[in-house]
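I am writing to request your help with a piece of structural work I have in hand. The matter concerns a single protein, recorded as an amino acid sequence and a row of backbone structure tokens. Could you please explain, in whatever detail you think fit, how the structure tokens follow from the sequence? Thank you for your consideration; the sequence and its tokens are set out here:
>
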Amino acid sequence: MLFRLSPSTVVKRAAAQPTVQFRGLVLGIDPSLRGSGFAVLDYRSSAEVRIVETATLKLKSAISQIECLGAIGNQVEDFIDQHALLHVAIEQTIYVQNFQTAQILGAARGAAIAVASMRGLPVFEYAPLRIKQAVAGAGRASKEQIARTICSLTGTDLGQRFDESDAAAVALCHAFTWRGV
């Protein structure tokens, strides 16, 4: 069907495209300069989800910020090299009152995003509230609630490794909500 906007402009309505639910491996990242969480999730359906690998990158305060960013990039590269990832999902920076903290979090995210992008992987960003809502059903869910939900959905108990369970939640949020064409 055609719509006329003006005598010289004609717009064609796009035909509805079918959407496809995500299936495959996604790397979830919970970024932080000194304690980033990573999780590779294999998503086939909401009933068939498993965690393939997780890690927390803990970096000591004696290591410079530049070295930390390099370590984050190396960790992302290792996951890309070891797994046939289709997508990377990362948590967006939350609102912080301290400008310097926001800069550091942004740099940590940038280190991870840059590597994935340079390797040709699509990167998707999700707000913390959206992640918690998609995974636990409540935008204000605690870290313990997220970890318990991840365990019940995947069968993997990450215990008190909250950076890893948060990363798994980012990946799971992506698998639940992404729709491609």
